[in-house]
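Hi U.,

Before I forget, here's the chain from the pilot set. I'm dumping it here mostly so it's searchable later in email.
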Amino acid sequence: MVKEYEDKITLGRFLMHINNEQLKGTGLRDTDSPVPINTFVYNKAEAQKVVIDEISYTMPSGSILPLVSNQHFSFEYPERLIAWQFNREFYCIVDHDTEVGCVGFLFYGLQHPMFIALGESEKEAMLQLEKVFSDEWLSRDNFQGEMLRTLLKHLIIKTTRIAKQQSESYQQFPDEKMDIVRKFSLLLESSFRKQHGVSFYADALHKSPKTLSNIFALLKQPAPSKLIQNRIVLEAKRYLHYTDRSSKEIAFELGFESPAHFSRFFKMYSGANVSEFRLSQRH
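Structure:
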């Protein structure tokens, strides 16, 4: 079952999936472009397999998984899940980050995927929240959209708090330093197609490249240069697997000077050349 709210004026969309067999994310593809939409999935049944960008993971029982619009995902038993989905027009997590503090952590963060385990009291709270959401779909007045946004914000904040409590880095280091990592993650997501050097990100965060790298080393995070490389390679793999775009087109999309430069980069950091990778994904 899918319950949907849509604002005809703003084009804001919010959906709640309850035991829906059709729950999946189509991410990047050449045709029929998907509406950019973020997703929270709650697994209150037993553990099950989830495939994200062609990599298989086990989603534990009693856990929440945040997913973003450019990810392809499918679940082994989607009919056993609850999910909430929303687009930017309904609630922009970037514009409202001071309210929810999730950008660059839950969404667009360094840890992919992030399975957030719930304790018994938190599972009870989720059941209550599920009921409140379900009750709100019965309302058809002018306040429904704002009420659903308020409930969504509650879900995001609650999940962010739980996740930060479970993060060793957030427990061990000051919020100021962790906020730099968070802001870097968001900046990387918006800029990696054109900006491939650490200096751009350091300047935007008002740090020197060396200081930025030292902060990441202190927090036991991969070096900023490695994170930039990984993000570019991930997007390149998505293009190669899910679209028919040529190496030249992908190179242009990802900000490379030439297809040859892109091919060398991909070979160096993925371990396979472009044609080998594409061929391996189609067998």
